[in-house]
Amino acid sequence: MDEKRREQLSRLLSLMLRHKPERFYLDMDLQGYASKEDVLEGVRQKFDDATEEEILDIVEGPEKRRFELTDGRIRARYGHSFAIDLGLETAEPPEFLYYATVPAQVQAIATGGIRPGDRQHVHLSLTSEIAADVARSRTDTPVVFCIKAIEAAQAGIEFYDRHPVMLTRGIPAEFVEPMQDGSSGSASLYGRRKRSTFPRK
Hints:
By secondary structure, the protein is α+β, with helices and mostly antiparallel strands.
C-alpha cells in the first residue's frame, strides 16, 4: 500500500470512528468499538476495493497509534468528538507537555486556558516539535505553548496516557505558558511549512 492510499484510508477511519459513525451505519458500543466487518463495509462505501488486510495494516501499524483492535472490534484510541467511555486510568504526566495552535487563538488560551473544543479531550504532545507539526495541518505558523503538567496534576488536573499523546479535559491558564523565542522574547512561531470550568479531582 502506497503512502497516499494509507493516508486516505487512515483519514477515512478517523472520520468513521472519531466523528461520524452514523454516516457509515456503524453499530458502536459505549467504549467506541465497532466490528471489524462493519468498519470494512463502511470503508468500502468510499473505496470499494479496500481489503481487510489494508485496514488491519493501518490499525495495527506503529505510526501515531490512532486505532486499536480488540476481539475483532476496532476503535479510535483518542480524538473523539462525541462522548464515549475509553476506560482510561489517570497517569502521572512528565514535567512538561506541549500544545500548539493557530496565532488567532493565542489570546484566548492565555486568558482562558486550553479547552477541548469539539473533542472529548485536549491532546497534548511530548515535545514542542511534535506539537508544532500537528498544528501545521491548520496553519503555516503554529504557536507552541508549554504546559506545566506536574504542577497541574498536583492541583487536581487529571491526565491520561494514550501514547503518543497525553489526554486531559482541560488546562487552566495558570499552567500554560507560551514558549519564548530567545531572540525576540515573543511567543514562538514554528516553521513555514503547511502541513470555562475544568474538571478537577
